[in-house]
Amino acid sequence: MKFAPNRLYIEAYNKCPTCGILLYEKPANALTETVQSNGKTYCSQWCVDWEADRAARRATEAAAS
Ligand SMILES: [Zn+2]
Questions:
Q1: What pLDDT digit, counting tens, does each position of 3-15 carry?
Q2: Per-residue buried b or exposed e for 11-42, using 16+ beta carbons within 10 Å of the residue's own CB
Q3: What whole-number distance in Å separates Cα of residue 4 and Cα of residue 61?
Q4: Residues with CB under 5 A from ligand 1 (ion)
Q5: Whole-number Å distance between alpha carbons of 55 and 65
Q6: Measuring CA to CA, how many Å separate 10 from each of 13, 27, 38?
Q7: CA 13 to CA 10: how far, in whole Å?
Q8: What are the residue ranges spanned by the domains of the chain?
Q9: Alpha carbon of 62 to ligand 1 centroid (Å)
Q10: Segments of the chain scoring below 50 in pLDDT
């Protein structure tokens, strides 16, 4: 992981919107597969499903209130 002195990231990266894990273009660990959905990059299909479930829950709550 590299940081510029002003703490701005100097390498392109994404964060999984669901779990917040950093998704580097070339991760050093075994996390080699990411999932693209709705223009976002997720670390796994599980997180895509989780986000969809959360959206559905929020829609249900909004309709009930
Ligand atoms: Zn994730």
A1: 556 555 545 567 8
A2: eeeeebbbeeeeeeeeeeeeeeebeeeeebbb
A3: 42
A4: 16, 18-19, 43, 47
A5: 16
A6: 9, 15, 25
A7: 9
A8: 1-65
A9: 25
A10: 10, 27
